[in-house]
């Protein structure tokens, strides 16, 4: 049996391009054989209070002083009225589960993790939050009460999670 890499190499030798035909749809597909390794640094200076809040077990968002909209994740500028007069507010750490799924096909950067549940909850004070779900996915039901808690990831850093209330 020929491996996918060997098949692609053969196609490249024959055609000069790594294009194969999808078996189901018949559509042409580009296959890239390069392995991706990604490291990056992202400035979080404008939302530094969010991370300081995590250290204290708090979930912080931002509120526009002009239009009153509340944002999570926090925003430096209001995406609604485009004003920059923003204040930091502590969000309520409780809400309602809206939906949940289990991610089985993980991106390479999460390949060290077992399949993991991800949920969306609507906080009592309004914003929706997307986070890993720390609970039995079989017991999760839309409309159930949940809380947002700060926990440590496998890598050792703090992050917020959704858990049953």
From TrEMBL:
<dbReference type="InterPro" id="IPR002878">
    <property type="entry name" value="ChsH2_C"/>
</dbReference>
<feature type="domain" description="ChsH2 rubredoxin-like zinc ribbon">
    <location>
        <begin position="52"/>
        <end position="87"/>
    </location>
</feature>
<dbReference type="Pfam" id="PF12172">
    <property type="entry name" value="zf-ChsH2"/>
</dbReference>
<feature type="domain" description="ChsH2 C-terminal OB-fold">
    <location>
        <begin position="88"/>
        <end position="149"/>
    </location>
</feature>
<protein>
    <recommendedName>
        <fullName>Zn-ribbon domain-containing OB-fold protein</fullName>
    </recommendedName>
</protein>
<dbReference type="Pfam" id="PF01796">
    <property type="entry name" value="OB_ChsH2_C"/>
</dbReference>
<dbReference type="InterPro" id="IPR052513">
    <property type="entry name" value="Thioester_dehydratase-like"/>
</dbReference>
<dbReference type="InterPro" id="IPR022002">
    <property type="entry name" value="ChsH2_Znr"/>
</dbReference>
<dbReference type="InterPro" id="IPR012340">
    <property type="entry name" value="NA-bd_OB-fold"/>
</dbReference>
């Amino acid at each position: 049996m020929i491996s996918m890499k060997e098949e692609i190499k053969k196609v490249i030798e024959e055609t000069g391009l790594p294009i194969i035909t999808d078996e189901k749809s018949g559509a042409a597909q580009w296959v890239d054989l390069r392995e991706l390794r990604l490291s990056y640094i992202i400035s979080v200076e404008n939302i530094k209070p969010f991370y300081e809040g995590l250290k204290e077990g708090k979930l912080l968002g931002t509120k526009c002083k002009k239009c009153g909209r509340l944002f999570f994740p926090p925003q430096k500028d209001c995406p609604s009225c485009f004003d920059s007069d923003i204040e930091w507010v502590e969000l309520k750490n409780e809400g309602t589960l809206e939906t949940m799924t289990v991610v089985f096909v993980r991106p390479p950067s999460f390949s060290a993790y077992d399949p993991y549940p991800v949920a969306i909850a609507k906080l009592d004070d309004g914003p929706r939050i997307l986070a890993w779900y720390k609970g039995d996915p079989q017991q999760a039901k839309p409309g159930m009460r949940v809380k947002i808690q700060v926990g440590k990831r496998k890598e050792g850093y703090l992050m917020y999670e959704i858990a049953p209330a």
